[in-house]
Model the fold of this input.
Amino acid sequence: MANKIRGVLAATALMGVLAGCGGGNGNNAAPNDANQGASSSPSASASASASPSAEATGGGKTTVQFWHSLGGKNGEYMDALIKRFNDSHPDIEVVGTFQGGYDETVTKLQQAIASNTAPDVSMLERAYVQMFADSDVLEDMKPYLDKSGMSPDDFTAGLMGHSYFDNKLVSLPLNRSTPILHVNKTLLDAKGLSVPKTWDELKTAANALADKGKGQYGLTMPYDTWYQLAMITQAGGKFFNDDKTSVDFIDNGVGEKVFAYLKDLQNAGAFYYPPQQDSGNIVNKMFTEGKVAMMYQSTGSIGGLMEAVNFDYVTAFLPKDQEYANPTGGANVTILSGSKNKDAAWEFIRWMDTDPQGAQQFIVQSGYLPFTKAMVDSQEIKDLWAKEPNRKVAYDQLQYAVDTNMDVAWPEVMHEFFSAIEAIMYDSKDIKSTLATFKKEADRILNQ
Amino acid sequence: MNPEYERHPIRSIADYALKGAVVLVFVFPFLWMISTSLQTFRETMAFPPTWIPASPQWTNFSHAMQAGPFLTYARNSIVVTASIIALQLLVMIPAAYAFAKYRFPGRNILFGLVLLAFMIPGQVTFIPVYLMLADWGLIKTLLPQILPFLSSAFGIFLLRQYFMQIPEEIIEAARLDNASEAKIVRRVMIPMSKPALATIALFSFVSHWNDYFWPLIMTDSNAVRPLTLGIAMLRETEGISNWHILMAGNVVLVVPILIVYLFCSQQIVKAFVYSGIK
Done:
């Protein structure tokens, strides 16, 4: 596969000439005014003091630029983590900067790497790790790990799936999540149903809980590839085959089984598939309102849901077909190989992963999954799980974690898979022929 | 006006009903935003939706504003937007004057080029522009948010149309009185096209004040980021967003637009009425 980052740049390079011309037309009087406006402002603010020191490496304090994608409450927890690190490290200053959502951070990293303005450390959504690693811009952290007396075995195995590329340790888990079944147990109890453990039980329960008159559904899930991925592996398939030359869930009938299952429930009025835009918020809201009894959704929603619901809310493993299986999600952390402060960057990651004041606090506050064995064994996490068993279920499910969609080409194939999901779930296109079309496209992408 | 037409009761009822419906469609999201900004988290998640919060949560605003360096964001937004408007007017007025009133070879081709150069969307040019500005070492300043917007094709176009309606005789009269070209622009063209200038300034203000994509791409530190990015930061990447906090941030973002609009609205109506009559 060609170097993607450079590819994007080459394709737009021509446009750059045009844009340069456009911007250069008739602006003689301008730059002076703009300079005054710009230069007077950053110096006036206190927060600006961080940026000029970024280049200063000899001045005693090393600055580590850290890009992340955490907004809202989780962003505040991350800021607090960075502050704890800076307070305990007089010689290093980590500057954490929010760079938009996961996809936006990826775009920003691509352009920043090309223009040598990349940060030292970045959060990277796990599905993009392979793509960046393939461009050889992520540092191998194994030597650092060895130097610090740590081992990859210190981490939760189910979350290490995206960490290796060509035998190099290119990323480590940070804010990781996984899809899980969220249940309104009050509604299930009213019908005398128990929490479903298999697809068959799920189907029975969803149908029993559906009530068209009240506009109530049995099951829902956000618009995403995650949940279909989970179901494909539960039914014994794999998204990509082991050689990554084709998809491995269509010829064996697994894909058809998954979509037929969902489609049957949808047609019976038991399954609600939300519109694309803001689907995650829509299903969360329906669940808290009691309009849907069960929901496939990220573990990242547990904290917010517990705060919002006023019924008996429990979580459970995603029901199994042939076996229990679930993909993982969220983001990893990585050191950019262009960094000039790799030792300081590593110290930040080492501290996060090993110090009880590091990521462990962030995990407890945010509800993301603990990702080292030391965290899981800590009294703090044990207390948390005793208080909030819903979070323990999420962690326990990781024993079945399997990511079968790992490949450099995944971001591209993902778009095709989304198209197939849309065609089947929204337009009720024929499942078999839609999946056949998808396979043809996927094969083309994988073999180019 | 036809008096018969004015008096017909059904017509005026239909008139008001239609106007009311249009107003509702435009005002409703604003009201919902304001209402949500004063609710508690539980109220934002309730169904049926909460219309009027039980007790207004003014602390949502301080919570939103303390979530990041919002003073810096606000200052950056103001500096960037004000600089863009000032520079655009500086570039556009002479350009539009030349295109409207001068006859010179290649005028139409040049005007076509102006329109063409700005029809390329930012999504196509952002990577090369970023690389260029990074190369010049400007990424840690506000300039990447200002320089690419020194001029706007829409503004030059609108202003040129407006200038073309100003009678040649007035300009001739000024020239007879020995007025320089600069003076003609300053004393004749600008005063006579205030509505158009106000419209252009307002459009420019709204689009750059609200811009999210360009500053997101062109900045990588809080010191140079505008309000829109600060507000996007209030949103959860995964999990359940705190809509009440998010909406409080949005209210803060929108209020300046409403204030500016109040000042400009008269002029804007004039601008469109004039260009419609001629």
